[in-house]
Structures are given as C-alpha cells and as structure tokens.
Design brief:
This protein has 18 helices and 5 strands. The protein is mainly α and about 425 residues long. Strands 1-2-3 form a 3-stranded antiparallel beta sheet, with no helix packed on it. A two-stranded antiparallel sheet has the order 4-5.
Length: about 425
C-alpha cells in the first residue's frame, strides 16, 4: 500500500542522491511524522545527518531505530560512525562488535572496528615526558661580546669618460669678475605655433621687488601658477588653441608678468568660435489649488511638517497646514514613513472640517476627496489599512460619507478597506 510516508521517503531518497541533504532531511522528517513506527525513515535521516556533520542528531536517530528494531545492523554501524566523530570511541567499539555479532562477514564494520581499536591503543600509550634541560654544564658566557667576522671586498671605481669641448672664446675686454657671471650656455627658443624664429633669452633670474600689499601678493601668487591651455581639435587639422592665460582673462585675474593678460587665442583656422547662449531664466513652480488661488509650491520636509502639525491643536489650524500641500505631493512627502497615528490625526482633521459649516462646502469636499485618493499612493499604505482598528475604520467610513455623498469614488473606498 502506497502511503504518505512512503511518498515522502521516495522524495528524500531522490534528494539524497542529488546531494541535497537538507531537503532530504525535510522529506525524511515528513515520513517519520506520517509513520513513526517505521524504522527505515529515521535510519535514512541519520545517513543525511552524517553527511552534514550533525553527529548528535544522527546518533539520536540511530538509537530510535534500535528501539524499534534491536537487530538493525545499519543502525549500529551508523551510530558507531557518529560516536567516533564525537570522540566516544568505547561506545563506538561496542556498537561495531554488536554489528559483527549480528553480521560476521560485514567488511566495512571490520575495517571501522580496526581503526577504532588503533585509536584506543594510541590513547592507552603513556606519553613520554620531556626531559628537563641540564643547565649545570652550560658553556660559560664570555664577558666580551663576540663580533662577527668581516670580509674585505675590493671595490673598483669606474669613471665615465669626460666629454671634451672646445673652449669658448672670451672677449678681449672681459675681466675676471665678468668670467664668474653665470650666463646661458645655449639659446632658449620660444617656438610658437605660427612659426616664429627662436630668440635668445638669459637664464639669470631677475630680482623683483617684494609686494607691498596683500592684494599685490595675491596677484603675484596667482600669476606664478601654471595653468594648462586648451583648444578645439578637429579631424581636418584646423585646430583652435587657447593659451594658458585665457582662463585668467575669463576670471578677470591680473598678473605682473609681461604679456600675461594680452595673450589672445591662437587661431589656426578661420572658423569663428561659437558664443555661449545664455540660459533662459528659471521660473518658480506654481501649484494651482482647486479654489482658483495661486500658491507658490514650497519644499517641505516630513520633519518640518510633523513639527508644525504637533504644535497645532485645533482642526481648523491643521486643515490650513494641509491645504498648503498639494494632494499629489503627499506620496513624495511621506514616502515610506507614514505612521498610523499621523494618518488618524489627518482623518480627524478631515472629518472636523467637513462637519463645520462653510460657504464653500463643495470645494472642501472635492479637496478632501483628492487628499484621500492620493494618500492611497503612499508606500506601506496597504499595511497600515490592514492593521486598522474598528474605531479607525469607522472614522474612515465617516470621512468618506461626508466627502463623497454620492458614492462616486468606489475604487478609492475599496483601497481604504471599506465598500
């Protein structure tokens, strides 16, 4: 007869063969629950426990099997394996000997018993005590420190050949003091992109007067900075390059270096440089409320709204605060931080303003309906509605009956948990 326990056992065997031992344990547990008297199910579960290293659970299942069937050789062998892992070698030895009594030609049991007995023999051997070191005949330590031996390694100095050059002609009217003046040994060429000829420049730095004011020091410091130039590079080779000082001109920075403020961009092509188009002025966003008044929409955080809300005590003041916020801004205002207490206080304010006599009652009803519809779009709103108490649901129903007297908003009512 094919039972539920047998079906769970087959699923466990399939999972065991696939190597999914946790799933196999789950199926075997279902089989044990369906038929607790069948020793096969806990025996198979013990094998899965051994694969996962849960030796205590495997030992418990094998003991259960031996309670149901005392001559089960597999249960004795697997319990011995679990006890070996738990370092209970004598109990494991007893289980293996009992298994060999029931099944003498069982070769795996013989090999496991041999390993257990060898381990027990190793435990019975006395450990060799370490012999103490005799320090009475230790060599005497000399008072003078022993220096390591040093070796002398010859070092050969190799000098590079000195390049000879012809002596430079000295003018006839030169004095010995003039010969000590540092001069440039080669011309410094300032090559431009337009192909100008190189000019000689002296490398002797010129002495400059220290700045007299902080403004002059700042200008000198800004001028000493090296700023990379830039340009527009084209595939046809007609590039437009700008000097490093062009950026200073854009910022209005003046430097003391000659020609620093008068370096125009070097045009290699006749293409004009595009001019920047000024961006149009940004107008503030205006939210139009249903009563026709125009209000500038200001950004309000949930923290600021909560603080202002808690300071207000009357329903009229709280309604005035809510009326500053467009209904479509409620999801972005609350996001996922809408609390049940805040939602209840909002509903109280809605009910109070709807019950109060007003000349513009229809506009107020329409405004409240829009708030109720957009509150549904706040995240976690469904969870809050599910956890509402009976009094809170009665408050929701009262607000909808006052705001939607004709019952036109059936979909929004269902979202609030009422019909």
């Amino acid at each position: 007869m094919f039972t539920a326990g047998q079906a769970a056992k087959d699923k466990g065997n399939a999972a065991f063969k696939a190597g999914d031992f946790p799933a196999a344990i789950g199926h075997y547990s279902s089989a044990v629950t369906a038929d607790p008297k069948n020793p096969t199910y806990p025996l198979n579960r013990a094998a899965a426990y051994l694969k996962l290293g849960k030796h205590e659970d495997a030992e418990r299942d094998c003991s259960t099997v031996l309670t149901l069937d005392a001559r089960n050789v597999k249960a004795l062998f697997r319990r011995a394996q679990a006890r070996v892992a738990l370092q209970r070698l004598q109990d494991a030895q007893a289980d293996l000997k009992q298994a060999l009594v029931l099944d003498p030609p069982n070769e795996p049991a013989k090999q496991e018993l041999k390993r257990v007995e060898e381990s027990l023999e190793q435990q019975r051997k006395p450990r060799q005590k370490k012999q103490p070191i005799d320090v009475s005949h230790a060599p005497a330590v000399s008072a003078s420190p022993v220096h390591p031996k040093r070796r002398r390694i010859p070092i050969e100095i190799v000098e590079a050949p000195v390049a000879t050059s012809e002596p430079t002609a000295v003018p006839g009217n030169a004095t010995p003091d003039d010969l000590m003046t540092p001069v440039s040994s080669r011309p410094l060429a300032s090559t431009s992109l337009a192909g100008s000829t190189p000019t000689a420049a002296s490398t002797v730095p010129q002495k400059t007067q220290p700045p007299a004011t902080f403004q002059q020091a700042k200008i000198a410091r800004e001028g000493a900075r090296q700023r990379p130039g830039g340009g527009i590079f084209r595939a046809d080779g007609k590039h437009t390059l700008f000097g490093a000082k062009e950026a200073d001109k854009g910022r209005g920075t003046q430097t003391d270096e000659p020609g620093a403020n008068a370096s125009p961009p070097q045009e290699l092509s006749s293409s004009p440089r595009p001019e920047a188009v000024p961006a149009p002025p940004v107008k503030p966003a205006v939210a139009t409320v249903p009563n026709g008044a125009s209000k500038t929409q200001t950004l309000m955080t949930l923290f600021a709204f909560t603080r202002r809300w808690e300071r207000l005590k009357t329903a009229e003041e709280r309604w005035a605060l809510i009326d500053e916020i467009p209904p479509q801004a409620l999801p972005s205002l609350f996001q996922s931080s809408l609390e049940a207490s805040m939602l209840t206080s909002l509903l109280d304010a809605f009910r109070s303003v709807l019950q109060a006599p007003s000349e513009d009652a229809l506009a107020t009803q329409e405004r409240v309906r829009m708030y109720m519809q957009h509150l549904v779009r706040v995240r976690r709103f469904g969870t809050i509605v599910l956890l509402m108490s009976a009094e809170e649901r009665a408050l929701v129903r009262a607000v909808w009956e006052l705001a939607d007297t004709e019952g036109a908003e059936a979909g929004a009512r269902r979202a609030w948990g009422i019909s």
